Amino acid sequence: MKIIVDADACPVKQIIENIAAKYDLNVIMVSNYHHQIDSNYATVIIADGAAQAADMIIANQTRPGDIVVTQDYGLAAIILGRNAYAIHPRGNIYSRENIDGLLMQRYLNQKARQANKRISGPRKKTSRDDEMFAQQFEKLILEHK
């Protein structure tokens, strides 16, 4: 098992590294070259600026049983299809049971934006979100290690 992080806008990189180190798990952080990612623990892979380049690297690096941290529902669906696990940085675990609904909601929000309807974004991240992520991330590791 390894941990792969969609690192461009990931707010929990340090939490991921701390927990992965506790269980001696390899971490790969994937980012496009527009974002500077530094890590003393993780392997950092820089993707070019092409659309979906980082997602393609993440998908190609993922093996069954790996854990991917991403906010991207489309990428999460691909990861689940590879018999790996996916978790959102707020601690929500993606599953075969919930991914279709999340993708549908993303589609409906996109259609509403195209019609110039205002869609509220995610609420501001709190320390409780970090705690929830750490708890769920560690639980996911322990259940599947």
Structure in words:
The protein is α/β, with parallel strands linked by helices and 145 residues long. It has a single domain, classed as Rossmann fold, CATH 3.40.50. The protein has 5 helices and 6 strands. The chain has helices at residues 13-22, 53-61, 73-81, 99-114, 127-144; strands at residues 2-6, 26-32, 43-47, 67-69, 85-87, 93-94. Helix 3 (73-81) runs antiparallel to helix 4.
Characteristic terms for this protein:
145 residues, single chain, Rossmann fold, alpha/beta, 5 helices, 6 strands, six-stranded mixed sheet
How would the blueprint of this fold be written?
Blueprint: E1 2-6, H1 13-22, E2 26-32, E3 43-47, H2 53-61, E4 67-69, H3 73-81, E5 85-87, E6 93-94, H4 99-114, H5 127-144
Parallel strand pairs: 1-2, 1-4, 2-3, 4-5
Antiparallel strand pairs: 5-6
Helix pairs in contact: 3-4
Q: Briefly, what CATH class?
A: Alpha Beta
Percent helix:
40-55%
Please describe the biggest sheet, giving its number of strands, its sense, and whether it closes into a barrel: 6 strands, mixed
The whole-number mean of residue pLDDT values reads 90
Number of helices: 5
Radius of gyration: 15 Å
